[in-house]
């Protein structure tokens, strides 16, 4: 489990100090992408703080508020999501302008994560403009944690816009999220039960019986999954503990439930 700060750049669309506008609206898209990245990282078991500012009174104020949120805690990485502008390719020249990432100094985790993101974006068709260094960005200069700023693609390039529309922000967010954590984002299934006793509900005991049938590999006959804690259920639970090399207990506690959950057949 890692901790991250993520923020979408600028104020919301339509407000003062909002982002760039072209075929795409930066403030609108960067918020969609940011929310989706946060969702994916959380589902993968990470802690993420949304440091986006939606009520800045000026560009400077937006930045200050983002930084104030970012610097509240120590995180593995601070990430800011932006969309670029400046291509002014209204007709489309068949060239994707693509993705670039900024940092103050490209080493360690900043470099590793950025390279992965750029590679993932390349796979989606966005040209790799590289990891670039600058001392001119307020966000990068004032975050106390290590930080990167991602320019996803260009709002004013017809080719980028067409690709963006084709791919959709969700796949882009996934490419970035997987670049951040360095592996696929997968929903972590929750443990259904952390304790099952003789007096537990029928469904809880049925769960235990099903899991025991799957995980216990000894000679005892499979249990009927009737949700009644009888002699046979007790017997198989004890045999399962023995199989794991554990001491006998009287009910399935968290350790047992976790083992049954982990060892279940897929
Ligand atoms: Zn921006």
What are the defining features of this structure?
elongated; 14% strand; 2 domains; 42% helix; 6 strands; 9 helices; Muramoyl-pentapeptide Carboxypeptidase, domain 1; 266 residues; Aminopeptidase; six-stranded mixed beta sheet; binds zinc ion; alpha/beta
Topology:
Layout: E1 3-8, H1 26-43, E2 47-50, H2 59-70, E3 77-84, E4 99-103, H3 108-124, E5 128-133, H4 138-142, E6 147-154, H5 158-167, H6 169-181, H7 202-215, H8 231-244, H9 254-263
Parallel strand pairs: 1-2, 1-3, 3-6, 4-5
Antiparallel strand pairs: 4-6
Helix pairs in contact: 1-6, 3-6, 7-9
The protein binds zinc ion (ZN).
Please summarize what this structure is.
The protein is α/β, with parallel strands linked by helices and 266 residues long. It folds into 2 domains: 3-181, Aminopeptidase; 202-263, Muramoyl-pentapeptide Carboxypeptidase, domain 1.
What does this structure look like?
- It contains 9 helices and 6 strands, in the order E-H-E-H-E-E-H-E-H-E-H-H-H-H-H.
- The chain has 266 residues and is an alpha/beta fold.
- It folds into 2 domains: 3-181, Aminopeptidase (3-Layer(aba) Sandwich); 202-263, Muramoyl-pentapeptide Carboxypeptidase, domain 1 (Orthogonal Bundle).
- It has a 6-stranded mixed sheet, sandwiched between helices.
- Strand 1, helix 1 (26-43) and strand 2 (47-50) form a beta-alpha-beta unit.
- The longest helix is centred in the N-terminal third of the chain and has 18 residues, at 26-43.
- The radius of gyration is 25 Å and the shape is elongated.
- Bound molecules: zinc ion.
- Residues 9-10, 19-20, 26, 82 line the site of zinc ion.
């Amino acid at each position: 489990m890692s901790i991250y700060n993520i923020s979408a750049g600028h104020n919301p669309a339509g407000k003062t100090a909002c982002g760039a506008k072209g075929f795409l609206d930066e403030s609108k898209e960067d918020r969609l992408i940011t929310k989706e990245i946060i969702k994916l990282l959380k589902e993968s078991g990470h802690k993420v703080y949304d440091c986006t500012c939606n009520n800045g009174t000026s560009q400077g104020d937006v930045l200050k508020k983002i930084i104030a949120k970012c610097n509240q805690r120590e995180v593995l990485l601070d990430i800011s999501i932006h969309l670029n502008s400046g291509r002014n390719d209204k007709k489309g020249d068949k060239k994707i302008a693509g993705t670039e990432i900024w940092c103050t100094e490209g080493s360690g985790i900043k470099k590793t994560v950025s390279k992965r993101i750029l590679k993932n974006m390349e796979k989606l068709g966005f040209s790799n403009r590289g990891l670039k260094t600058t001392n001119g960005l307020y966000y990068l200069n004032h975050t106390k944690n290590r930080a990167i700023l991602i320019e996803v693609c260009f709002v004013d390039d017809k080719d980028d816009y067409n690709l963006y529309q084709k791919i959709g922000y969700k796949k882009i967010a996934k490419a970035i999220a997987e670049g951040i954590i360095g592996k696929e984002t997968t929903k972590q299934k929750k443990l259904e039960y952390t304790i099952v006793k003789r007096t537990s509900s029928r469904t809880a005991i049925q769960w235990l019986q099903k899991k025991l049938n799957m995980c216990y590999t000894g000679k005892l006959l499979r249990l009927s999954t009737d949700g009644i804690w009888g002699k046979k259920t007790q017997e198989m639970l004890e045999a399962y503990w023995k199989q794991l090399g554990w001491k006998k207990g009287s009910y399935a506690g968290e350790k047992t439930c976790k083992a049954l959950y982990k060892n279940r057949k897929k």
